[in-house]
Backbone:
């Protein structure tokens, strides 16, 4: 018997994984980055094949991992976690540096970063697991605390994007929230609140393709408050 | 340039990974277990080839993951993290159940467990990355908090075993501790303190093959307090 609640007890951090180069770069929010050997230092990162960044990693053979801290803004997480880079340049208006492999590295909201060259690629069906050898890393802020997925979920009230390996069925979250006022809706990606009373259209009547004005998350990524 | 301090910012949980069956079973403490796809639910676990459990997973094609909580005892972590199962039955005097694959599952100190059948095996040099498909899982305790590696390191003052992908050079820890009394030594595995003044032999003069009387950790796993 599988109890999916058991899966939520696994601990993860929260990262922005980027790839590409100065001309064409992109990134996405990931919680599945981890070290797998110490000599040499190799890491694994799981990436949904639907993510634009997945193509970029395959083509460029590099990726960077920015380790988010607890004060990383919801807008940053919303932008990289809930919008596709296929039709939108996520790196614009984000503080980015370029590593020795040429990969973009997000330094906004980040406590440290790691840069990898891909040494292996494992096809897992919906996702590709990239194995990277560490070529470059730096601590950006000694004092801040790394953002964990538990903190993101419990304190920042965030959810996993649909492409994440740890995507959570949202109906479980909605059931909890329904005791509060019926009119306002909160964006689970960035925290923006749509106050139906102060808008021309109640949230329920917004078109299905309406998106969050702050981070671009979809209407279905909002919950009733 | 590689700054290894950046690697310490990655967040991990702490787990006991077991494999085998009722006749021959073993387990080890791991921090590198993570979900890699959601449909089907597949996880990856990195295992040093020197670990006895690594052979057992290869042979039996199953493994279980017990998710430790914050109140898990240092003795439990010491026993599974710092002793080899080659010459010692770790499952004796531990609360264990057997899953549907036959794998032993440690329930002591655990908030939940997951059970897998191996679907892929990736050779990474020093380690093997096992990909498992989830076949069984259960929450054992709704109220406790999952133990994170950060908590283990910062609050419980634990270190990574030498076989772990995230093994930390201990000299960094010793430098910090040297301002305190010179005579007592603490076992980093279980917290046991060797008080040289109250023993016949000062810690420094103990033989190299001396081990912790509580958890069996080696002499070099102690730090000066």
Residues:
């Amino acid at each position: 018997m599988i109890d999916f609640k058991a899966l939520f007890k696994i601990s993860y951090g929260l990262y922005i994984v980027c790839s590409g180069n100065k001309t064409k770069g992109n990134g996405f929010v990931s919680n599945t980055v981890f070290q797998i050997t110490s000599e040499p230092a190799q890491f694994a990162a799981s990436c949904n094949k639907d993510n634009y960044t997945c193509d970029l990693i395959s083509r460029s053979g590099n990726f960077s991992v920015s380790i988010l801290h607890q004060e990383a803004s919801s807008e940053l997480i919303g932008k990289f976690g809930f919008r596709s880079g296929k039709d939108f340049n996520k790196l614009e208006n984000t503080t980015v540096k370029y590593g020795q492999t040429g990969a973009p590295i997000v330094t906004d909201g980040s406590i440290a970063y790691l840069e990898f060259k891909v040494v292996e690629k494992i096809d897992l069906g919906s996702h590709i697991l990239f194995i990277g050898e560490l070529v470059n890393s730096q601590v950006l802020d000694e004092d801040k605390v790394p953002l964990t997925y538990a903190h993101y979920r419990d304190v920042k009230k965030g959810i996993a994007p649909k492409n994440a390996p740890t995507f959570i069925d949202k109906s479980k979250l909605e059931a909890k929230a329904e005791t509060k006022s019926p009119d306002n809706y909160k964006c689970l990606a960035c925290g923006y609140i749509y106050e139906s009373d102060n808008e021309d259209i109640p949230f329920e009547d917004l078109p299905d393709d309406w998106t969050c004005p702050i981070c671009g998350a979809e209407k279905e990524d909002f919950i009733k408050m």
